[in-house]
């Protein structure tokens, strides 16, 4: 229950979005903001947020794309309840809906439903290759309870033909991710997130379209921090001002 959780209220997009999230466990930082900034689609758009957490990516997206509708699925019921509160706090009732459910056995509201776009920030670590946090919520957010191949298969299944999938993940798993996306996804692009100039990318954003045959583009990427450790102006425009990540 939410009453048993210690909660903070945090600001995103320069204060445009207010978010309640647990003190302990997984806490949203810049990854869902970057994910929302990279998510694109034509027209008004109906978007699925897979692993929605407390709704940060969903809320950032609807604040930028003023006519889109977002449905999220999240396994942890405590986070779903917080997401519902966050939707109300930010005034996005009717435009964002976060559903409690397991993507291996989707709720009836999502079965056989297809979206114009899917965005996702899956857990980064394989269960047999890392030591999970003793905090259950943090462990579930960072360590796979669902195999990444199955996670991405659900995302692809949930897309309309030519729909766009956008995901953020660790750079070292790029080859694995691309192998799961081929051959059902094409027009693929890899966008590195460089911690600072001259340092290797730790995270990447991958985007592709369902049922399209064109190949892979490796993009220039975004440098997040300057020599003083502050966000670069380009990163600030995305993280504070809500500018889309264009590539």
TrEMBL record:
Pfam families named among the record's database cross-references: MTS
In the UniProt record, does the keyword S-adenosyl-L-methionine occur?
A: yes
Q: Which InterPro entries match?
A: SAM-dependent_MTases_sf (IPR029063), Small_mtfrase_dom (IPR007848), tRNA_Adenine-N(6)_MTase (IPR050210)
Q: Where is the Methyltransferase small domain?
A: 43-131
Report which superkingdom the organism of origin falls in.
Bacteria
Biological process, per Gene Ontology = methylation
Q: What CDD domains does the database record attribute to this sequence?
A: AdoMet_MTases
**Keywords from the named record:** Methyltransferase, S-adenosyl-L-methionine, Transferase
Q: Can you provide one Gene Ontology molecular function annotated for this UniProt record?
A: methyltransferase activity
Q: What is this protein called?
A: Class I SAM-dependent methyltransferase
> Can you name the source organism?
Candidatus Bealeia paramacronuclearis
């Amino acid at each position: 229950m939410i009453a048993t959780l210690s909660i903070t209220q945090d600001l995103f997009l320069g204060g445009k979005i207010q978010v309640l999230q647990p003190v302990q466990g997984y806490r949203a930082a810049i990854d869902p903001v970057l994910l929302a900034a990279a998510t694109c689609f034509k027209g008004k758009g109906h978007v699925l947020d897979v692993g929605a957490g407390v709704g940060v990516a969903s809320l950032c997206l609807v604040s930028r794309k003023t006519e889109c509708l977002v449905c999220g699925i999240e396994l942890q019921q405590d986070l779903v309840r917080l997401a519902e509160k966050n939707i109300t706090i930010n005034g996005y009732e009717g435009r964002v809906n976060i559903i409690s459910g397991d993507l291996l056995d989707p709720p009836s509201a999502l079965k056989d439903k297809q979206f114009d776009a899917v965005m996702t920030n899956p857990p980064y670590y394989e269960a047999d290759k890392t030591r999970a946090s003793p905090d259950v919520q943090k462990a579930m957010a960072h360590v796979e309870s669902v195999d990444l191949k199955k996670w991405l298969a659900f995302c692809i299944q949930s897309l309309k033909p030519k729909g766009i999938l956008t995901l953020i993940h660790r750079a070292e798993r790029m080859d694995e991710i691309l192998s799961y996306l081929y051959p059902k996804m094409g027009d693929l692009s890899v966008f590195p997130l460089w911690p600072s100039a001259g340092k290797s990318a730790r995270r990447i954003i991958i985007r592709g379209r369902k049922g399209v045959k064109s190949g892979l583009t490796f993009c220039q990427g975004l440098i997040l921090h300057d020599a003083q450790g502050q966000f670069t102006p380009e990163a600030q425009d995305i993280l504070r001002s809500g500018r889309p990540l264009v590539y």
